[in-house]
C-alpha cells in the first residue's frame, strides 16, 4: 500500500521522564502510531525534529531551558513543520496557556496526564490523545475500524453539490448558532471579530472544551471583538449582538419565555461523546426559529452537529459550513456537507461575509414589514 499505510510518526516532549515514558508507551501500543523520539526540553526537541521528522509533536508547556510556548513559536517559524498538540494543566492558568498556544499555531491541546495511577494515565492518553492524533493526521494512514467504537452515522454517497436540495427561500436570519471543535477557538475568533458592533441578532455557540477553558475562550474573544461575548448562564436572556458560549460540561439549549428566549443549561448525558454537544443546541434553535435560524459548522473532528443540522434543514433553516481547505479537521463540517445539508460551503475568511448576507436580509425584511 506504500506511504498510505505508514504509521503516524510522533515525538513526545516533556521534562518529566516518567511522563515521557508513559505517553510513549501508551501511544506506541497503537498499531497506527510510531513514537520516533522524545525530548526533555524545547531546545533538545528542535535539534531532533529535523532528524526524526515527526508528523506530530506532543509538547509540554513547563520545561527548563526552553518552554513549550517558545518551542511552538520556533516550530512554526520553520517551513513544513509537524503538527503540534499542546500539553497543559487542567487549571485556569492551563486554560489560558492552551488558548495562547492555539493562537500561536498549535493544532490542538490536551490536558496533561499525571503518573500517579499508571493504568488511569494510560487510559487517559489513549482516550484523549489518540483520537486527536488520528484526526490531525488522518491522511497519513489508512482508516482503521475500532470494534469498541460506535458505528458512524451513515451518510449518503455521491452528493455532487455543496448546495442542499430543496433549500429555503430568502435568508432571514433571526439567530446565529455555531458549532465547532478542533481548530474552533481561532476559527470562532476569526468569524466573530469580523462582525460589526451593531450585529442585530443573538449568537449561540458550542465549542467542544472543558470547564474553565470555555470561560477563558469567551473572555479572549470578548477582548478582540466589538460584540459582547460571555460564557452561557442558565436563564440568561438572548439579546442582539451578544455571543453566548456553552460552558464546559453543560449542554446549552434555548427555551421560549413569553416573547423572549432564554438559555437553558443541563447535565443531560453526553451526545456524540460530547457535553456540550452541538446537536441539542441546534435542535432547539431549529424548533424555535425555523426558517429564521442560521446554523454554522466550523472545523472540528467527529460528527457532532450532523443530526442538529438535519433538524435545521427540515425546519427550513439555513446551514453554512467551513470548507475543507481552511479547516484544521474537516470532520464536523464535512459530515454535514456529505449529507447534502449545507446550503453553502465557504472558506473561513468568507464566513463572516456569508453570515452578514443573511443578517442584512432580515433587516431588509423587517423594514419592508414595518
Report on this model:
It is a single chain. This protein has 11 helices and 14 strands. With 370 residues, the chain is α/β, with parallel strands linked by helices. It has 2 domains: 2-140, 3-Layer(aba) Sandwich (Rossmann fold), CATH 3.40.50.2300; 175-369, Rossmann fold (3-Layer(aba) Sandwich), CATH 3.40.50. The strands form 3 sheets. It has a 7-stranded parallel beta sheet with strand order 8-9-7-6-12-13-14, with helices on both faces. A 5-stranded parallel beta sheet has the order 2-1-3-4-5, sandwiched between helices. Strands 10-11 form a two-stranded antiparallel sheet. β12, α9 (306-314) and β13 form a beta-alpha-beta unit. α1 (17-28) packs across α5 and α8 (278-289) packs parallel to α9. The relative contact order is 0.11.
What features would you highlight for this structure?
Rossmann fold; single chain; 2 domains; 14 strands; seven-stranded parallel beta sheet; alpha/beta; elongated; five-stranded parallel beta sheet; 11 helices; 370 residues
Amino acid at each position: 500500500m506504500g506511504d498510505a499505510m505508514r504509521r503516524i510518526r510522533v515525538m513526545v516532549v516533556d521534562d518529566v521522564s516518567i511522563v515521557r515514558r508513559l505517553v510513549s508507551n501508551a501511544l506506541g501500543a497503537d498499531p497506527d502510531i510510531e513514537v520516533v523520539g522524545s525530548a526533555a526540553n524545547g531546545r533538545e526537541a528542535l535539534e531532533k525534529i529535523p532528524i526524526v521528522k515527526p508528523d506530530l509533536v506532543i509538547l509540554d508547556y513547563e520545561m527548563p531551558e526552553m518552554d513549550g510556548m517558545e518551542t511552538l513559536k520556533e516550530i512554526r517559524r520553520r517551513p513544513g513543520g509537524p503538527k503540534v498538540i499542546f500539553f497543559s494543566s487542567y487549571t485556569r492558568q492551563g486554560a489560558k496557556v492552551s488558548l495562547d498556544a492555539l493562537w500561536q499555531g498549535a493544532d490542538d491541546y490536551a490536558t496533561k496526564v499525571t503518573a500517579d495511577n499508571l493504568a488511569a494515565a494510560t487510559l487517559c492518553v489513549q482516550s484523549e490523545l489518540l483520537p486527536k492524533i488520528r484526526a490531525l493526521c488522518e491522511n497519513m494512514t489508512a482508516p482503521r475500524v475500532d470494534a469498541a467504537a460506535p458505528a458512524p452515522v451513515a451518510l449518503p454517497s455521491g452528493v455532487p453539490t455543496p448546495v442542499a436540495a430543496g433549500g429555503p427561500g430568502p435568508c432571514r436570519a433571526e439567530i446565529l448558532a455555531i458549532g465547532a471543535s478542533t481548530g474552533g477557538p481561532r476559527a470562532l475568533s476569526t468569524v466573530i471579530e469580523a462582525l460589526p458592533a451593531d450585529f442585530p441578532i443573538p449568537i449561540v455557540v458550542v465549542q467542544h472544551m472543558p470547564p474553565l477553558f470555555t470561560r477563558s475562550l469567551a473572555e479572549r474573544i470578548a477582548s478582540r471583538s466589538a460584540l459582547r461575548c460571555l460564557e452561557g448562564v442558565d436563564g440568561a436572556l438572548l439579546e442582539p449582538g451578544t455571543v453566548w458560549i456553552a460552558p464546559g460540561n453543560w449542554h446549552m439549549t434555548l427555551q421560549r419565555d413569553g416573547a423572549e428566549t432564554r438559555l437553558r443549561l443541563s447535565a443531560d448525558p453526553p451526545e456524540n461523546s460530547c457535553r456540550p454537544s452541538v446537536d441539542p443546541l441546534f435542535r432547539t434553535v431549529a424548533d424555535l426559529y425555523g426558517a429564521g435560524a442560521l446554523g454554522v459548522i466550523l472545523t472540528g473532528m467527529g460528527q457532532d452537529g450532523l443530526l442538529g443540522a438535519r433538524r435545521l434543514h427540515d425546519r427550513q433553516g439555513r446551514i453554512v459550513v467551513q470548507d475543507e481547505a481552511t479547516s484544521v479537521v474537516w470532520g464536523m463540517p464535512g459530515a454535514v456537507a456529505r449529507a447534502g445539508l449545507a446550503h453553502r460551503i465557504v472558506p473561513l475568511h468568507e464566513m463572516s461575509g456569508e453570515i452578514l448576507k443573511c443578517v442584512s436580509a432580515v433587516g431588509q425584511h423587517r423594514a419592508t414589514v414595518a
